[in-house]
Design brief:
Layout: E1 3-7, H1 13-23, E2 28-32, H2 36-42, H3 54-61, E3 66-69, H4 72-78, E4 81-84, H5 104-116, E5 121-125, H6 133-144, E6 150-154, H7 164-169, E7 174-178, H8 182-195, E8 204-208, H9 209-240, H10 244-252, H11 273-286, H12 290-317, E9 326-330, H13 345-355, E10 359-363, H14 369-375, E11 397-398, E12 402-404, H15 408-412, E13 417-420, H16 432-437, E14 444-447, H17 454-460, E15 463-466
Parallel strand pairs: 1-2, 1-4, 2-3, 4-5, 5-6, 7-8, 9-10, 9-13, 10-12, 13-14, 14-15
Antiparallel strand pairs: 11-12
Helix pairs in contact: 1-3, 5-6, 9-11, 9-12, 11-12, 12-13
Bound molecules: nicotinamide-adenine-dinucleotide.
């Protein structure tokens, strides 16, 4: 029986390994993590992350061929294939601070693999890492453990949060990069055999190590660039009277461009896009390519500009001040169908409004009060008791300027304005007549995701701002 161990039970490690276990009943999969609360949650009825379909997949395999454990060393030692799916955040200090990837977690995982291994292993980069990381990992593994063969593969993950299970079941492609030596090709074949259980052969792409590592950074940079491009157009639409939805549709019908990922919004978020572009910028600079670095930097600058523009629009529409005014924030996660708030645009928008002394009443169906207050830096994050692991019983958390509530209507009550920051379906379906009646007048809606029918809301009496659309007179 092939044994797989995955180091890191996060948003990637948990779902990807659950799907491998589900699709390959004869393979034993153990997901290990140093964070005991996370592992306890994976072993409970309240999984540590919210993803549609994940509960079912985990429940069907857990205890049969899928296991979650904090006994990292034991399971790594026993595995034939070790995936490493630890976090690779942006460095906060020292050389490359603010841009380069922090590979501390990766390095300590590699040293541990070298220390505990007693048999040959395939080590798979699942985390997103800078191009050439495999070279450094090989050096650590082979220096620290002579006589054992380690074959390094790059197998970056392309899942999107919110659709992770669907993406894993039916991936556009699986990418495997390895050395062009006979041993490297043998390792590629072994990993290919795992995915071949459910992924068609023509969707498994095999490349050299550096192409696979760079492809992941390139894919995220291209996706984010597309969002910044359409958001840049949205600013021009507002200035000229064009409608960004019509422009997106018009350009998306060109088969060379395509219709996906052309929705204007308050900006992109999530743990990956910004971090991976910063990483790309750093790599370009280190390779003496400042003009290429500047090109990618601009994607982030436009994203920041879009968030600032949104806050400015809210304040200027509400008679140039939101001081003391109640603003309902609908949605805090960086996108719908996830409880993940890492780098969510809601953080910058809320901080901007708080800076102008607004009172915020925040509601998100999947994000706890603890997490929101931590993100707004009102409470220190405690790794031993991560917010997303706490029971999601309805709670109301209040401080002077921010309250977090567990119902959209509660958030909206007596508010002067509403900001929609996540495209949760329930925000489309609210009874806006009732909402209007319960708000201060004039009642404003600032739709950061273009989810509401602005004309219908105008008929009710709202003043509506939608991204990239003609403005109310
Ligand atoms: P995460 O923070 O949710 O999970 C990482 C886990 O690794 C944490 O639980 C942490 O405790 C654990 N860990 C760190 N060091 C460890 C060690 N030495 N031993 C055992 N466990 C350790 O991160 P994530 O969102 O799952 O992302 C993981 C990687 O995948 C990152 O490189 C990210 O860029 C990449 N990625 C993320 C996504 C996404 O949508 N989140 C998509 C594709 C790729």
């Amino acid at each position: 029986m092939v044994k797989i161990c995955c180091i890191g039970a996060g948003y990637v490690g948990g779902p990807t390994m659950a799907v491998i276990a589900f699709k390959c009943p004869e393979i034993e999969v153990v997901v290990v993590d140093i964070a005991a609360p996370r592992i306890n949650a994976w072993n409970s009825d309240h999984l540590p992350i919210y993803e549609p379909g994940l509960d079912d997949v985990v429940k069907q395999c857990r205890g049969k061929n899928l296991f979650f454990s904090t006994d990292v060393e034991k399971h790594v030692a026993e595995a034939d294939i070790v995936f490493v799916s630890v976090n690779t955040p942006t460095k906060t200090q020292g050389l490359g601070a603010g841009k380069a990837a922090d590979l501390t977690y990766w390095e300590s995982a590699a040293r541990m693999i070298a220390d505990v291994s007693k048999s040959d292993k395939i080590v798979v980069e699942k985390s997103t890492v800078p191009v050439k990381t495999a070279e450094a990992i090989e050096r650590i593994l082979t220096h620290n453990r002579k006589g054992i063969n380690f074959n390094i593969l790059s197998n970056p993950e392309f899942l999107a949060e919110g659709t992770a299970i669907a993406d894993l079941f039916n991936p556009d492609r699986v990418l495997i990069g390895g050395r062009e030596t006979p041993e490297g090709q043998k390792a590629i074949k072994a990993l290919k055999d795992v995915y071949a259980h459910w992924v068609p052969d023509d969707r498994i792409l095999c490349t050299n190590l550096w192409s696979a590592e760079l492809s992941k950074l390139a894919a995220n940079a291209f996706l984010a660039q597309r969002i910044s491009s359409v958001n840049a157009m949205s600013a021009l639409c507002e200035a000229t009277g064009a409608d960004v939805s019509q422009v997106s549709h018009s350009i998306g019908t060109d088969s060379r461009i395509g219709p996906k990922f052309l929705n204007a919004s308050v900006g992109f978020g999530g743990s990956c896009f910004q971090k991976d572009i910063l990483n790309l910028v750093y790599i370009c600079e280190c390779n003496g390519l400042p003009e290429v670095a500047n090109y990618w930097k601009q994607v982030i600058k436009v994203n920041d500009y879009q968030k600032t523009r949104f806050v400015n629009r809210v304040v200027s529409s509400m008679f140039n001040t939101v001081s003391g005014k109640k603003i309902a924030i609908l949605g805090f996660a960086f996108k719908k169908d996830t409880g993940d708030t890492r780098e969510t645009p809601a953080i910058d928008v809320c901080k901007g409004l708080l800076g102008d002394k607004a009172k915020l009443s925040i509601y998100d169906p999947q994000v706890t009060a603890e997490q929101i207050l931590r993100d707004l830096s009102m409470k220190k994050f405690d790794w031993d008791h991560p917010a997303h692991l706490q029971p999601s019983s309805p709670t109301t958390s209040t401080n002077k300027q921010v309250s977090v509530v567990w119902d959209a209507y509660e958030a909206i009550k007596d508010a002067h304005g509403i900001c929609i920051l996540t495209e949760w379906d329930e925000f489309k379906k609210l009874d806006y007549q009732k909402v209007y009646e319960n708000m201060q007048k004039p009642a404003f809606v600032f739709d950061g995701r273009n989810v509401v029918d602005a004309n219908k809301l105008r008929e009710i009496g709202f003043i509506v701002y939608s991204i990239g659309k003609p403005l109310d007179a």
